[in-house]
Design a protein that fits this description.
The structure holds two protein chains of two kinds.
Chain A lengths: L2 H11 L8 E6 L2 E6 L4 E5 L5 E6 L4 E11 L5 E10 L4 E11 L6 E11 L4 E11 L6 E3 L2 E6 L4 E10 L3 E10 L4 E10 L4 E10 L4 E11 L4 E10 L3 E11 L4 E10 L4 E10 L3 H8 L5 H12 L2
Parallel strand pairs in A: 1-5, 4-6, 5-7, 6-8, 7-9, 8-10, 8-11, 9-12, 10-13, 11-13, 12-14, 13-15, 14-16, 15-17, 16-18, 17-19, 18-20
Antiparallel strand pairs in A: 1-2, 3-4
Helix pairs in contact in A: 2-3
Chain B lengths: L1 E12 L2 E13 L3 E5 L6 H9 L6 E6 L2 E2 L5 H7 L1 E4 L11 H9 L5 H10 L4 H4 L10 H15 L3 E5 L10 H15 L2 E5 L3 H5 L3 E6 L2 E6 L1 H9 L3 H11 L1
Parallel strand pairs in B: 3-8, 3-9, 6-7, 7-8
Antiparallel strand pairs in B: 1-2, 1-4, 4-5, 9-10
Helix pairs in contact in B: 3-6, 4-6
Classes of the chains: A mainly beta, B alpha/beta.
Chain lengths: ~300, ~240
């Protein structure tokens, strides 16, 4: 792995070295390293690019890293990763994609991840997207996440895109069984002429299931963002979706939350707020001795922390 | 030392010029100066003029002899002016510790940050990592605002009605906070207040009404008049004297 790839790896997975536990590192469309454990198996798909990850029932306190790194300009790939997580597990999955584009052609990664989370299992899924490189070629990422939570399963999805991705369309579809819980936390910052679109659909099918979809974003310069969030309450359930955006410069943010109750005991809430940084927030920090630029940076960093 | 020299502040209001501050001049030589007066009289505007949030339309403001009339909020803060808002600001994602650290202007330990919170009567452990967002009550925010001013420890601290919204916290401890702050920072305090008990510990009281400095002096001279401004009270007092 070269220096650029190591930097990308640190950005998307927080890794300085080869991780402990199970991992699968994909660089420029090839396999750069893999480790399986007694409980976590990783198998290369034969019909299309991607892997099957099988986590045995009862696997506790294990982690899996599956970073994807692209440094070859012009490379375009779609990768299908299917996760089957057994019952009564407690695992952390760290995915993430880093693109370094030093050339003129666009580099594109589409990761299609599907999760089936077994009954009473707990999964934390962390996904970070990062782009770098001086090239004029676009850095494009279009992740798709499909989630099925069985009875009593819990999944937390933390998805972060802070810088360097020119264009992204992120689609997440989830179906929840009885007593299942899904928490999605999304953080996005766009700058220059970047475009980011997120599209969440959550079907609350099971009795007493619940979902909380929270998005915080900052749009700078001429960037554009679209946030779509649909929650369908098809049973006795709780759903909450929230989009909170800071708009700056000449940016544009559109938020379209949608909640549908198809059951008398479905309790659903949506909230959406878009606004610039409040003048009084800037002034407060300036009365502490910060310049306007420093105050703005503090507010944005805090908001996306 | 703060000096205002013939300071006026006008705003355009429905095609009319409205004078909110009218030719106000004073020097604060005392360590604890209270500004009081009726609502809408211009007290908060005066605080904003001193902090640099607004600029006088006429007149000059001096800090230790230096003309700061056209200095920015940031410059004034760096020169040693602190300003506690009447209505503190909320920040999503920024914690109490973050704000106190920014106020201190350097990295401080959690223990140090907690010490400021304890002084304003907040249980430090409960609050230090809380976000300064809508989950905090107005009273909690006011105390955090005071803790930030303490962490700054500048030569001039301006408080705009620090007692407003503070509940279940005796004014005695608020007064103790101001006394401690003065001892530690060696700075002076300018406090806008309606509270008799705060006015009572002031070395000097300025009365601002209708945009003008109506009166100033020691509490012994100002307080009796203030407390008995209406005619009925004066009649009663004159009867009692007899």
């Amino acid at each position: 792995m070269d220096a650029i790839q190591k930097t990308l790896l640190e950005q998307v997975a927080g890794l300085h070295e080869i991780p402990t536990g199970a991992y699968n590192i994909r660089t420029n469309g090839g396999l750069a390293g893999r480790n399986t454990t007694a409980n976590i198996d990783i198998i290369t798909k034969e019909d299309k690019p991607g892997i099957d990850i099988i986590i045995k029932p009862g696997t506790k306190n294990e982690s899996l890293h599956i970073p994807v790194l692209l440094t070859q300009t012009g490379l375009k790939e779609s990768v299908y990763n299917d996760f089957v997580i057994g019952e009564d597990c407690d695992v952390t999955i760290i995915a993430g994609c880093g693109i370094h584009n030093g050339g003129k052609e666009g580099t594109e990664h589409s990761g299609i991840h599907s999760f089936v989370v077994g009954a009473n299992s707990k999964v934390k899924y962390v996904e970070k997207h990062y782009g770098s490189g001086e090239g004029t070629g676009e850095r494009i990422m279009n992740p798709v996440t499909i989630i099925e939570l069985k009875e009593g399963a819990y999944m937390e999805m933390d998805t972060v895109q802070i810088e360097g991705v020119d264009s992204t369309k992120r689609v997440t579809n989830a179906k929840l069984g009885d007593k299942a819980t899904l928490v999605i936390k999304e953080k996005i910052m766009t700058h220059d002429n970047q475009v980011a679109e997120t599209d969440f659909t959550v079907d609350l099918d099971g009795e007493d299931c619940g979902a909380n979809v929270i998005s915080r974003s900052v749009a700078k310069d001429h960037s554009r963002q679209l946030f779509l969030s649909k929650i369908n309450g098809n049973n006795r359930c709780n759903g909450h979706t929230e989009c909170d955006a800071i708009i700056m410069d000449e940016a544009s943010v559109r938020a379209v939350p949608e909640i549908t109750a198809n059951h008398i005991d479905a309790s659903l809430i949506h909230e959406a707020a878009i606004g610039k940084i409040a003048g009084e927030q800037l002034i407060k920090l300036m009365t502490l001795g910060l310049t306007e630029e420093e105050a703005e940076a503090q507010i944005v960093n805090g908001f996306l922390k | 030392m703060l000096e205002l020299r013939n300071v006026s502040y006008q705003v355009q209001d429905d095609n009319n010029l409205k004078e909110i501050i009218k030719n106000v001049s004073f020097k604060t030589e005392q360590r604890f100066v209270a500004i009081t007066g009726p609502n809408g009289g211009g007290k908060s505007t005066l605080a904003k003029l001193i902090a640099g949030i607004i600029t006088p339309t006429e007149g000059q403001i001096f800090l230790d002899g230096e003309d700061i009339t056209h200095k920015t909020v940031t410059e004034r803060a760096q020169m040693g002016i602190s300003y506690a808002f009447q209505q503190p600001v909320r920040f999503k994602g920024i914690t109490v510790k973050d704000l106190i650290t920014l106020a201190a202007g350097k990295n401080i330990s959690t223990t140090e940050a907690c010490a400021y919170l304890s002084e304003v009567g907040l249980c430090a452990r409960e609050y230090i990592n809380r976000e300064v967002n809508a989950s905090l009550s107005g009273g909690e925010l006011k105390r955090i605002e005071i803790a930030m001013i303490m962490a700054r420890g500048t030569k001039l601290s301006v408080f705009d009605e620090p007692e407003a919204g503070i509940d279940l916290w005796s004014f005695q401890s608020l007064i103790r906070v101001f006394e401690n702050m003065h001892e530690k920072s060696g700075g002076s305090i300018l406090i806008i207040s309606h509270q008799e008990r705060i006015l009572n510990i002031a070395d000097e009281i300025l009365v601002i009404a209708n945009g003008e400095l109506k009166n100033r002096g020691k509490k012994e001279d100002i307080l009796p008049d203030l407390l008995c401004e209406n005619a009925g009270c004066k009649t009663l007092l004159s009867k009692m004297d007899k």
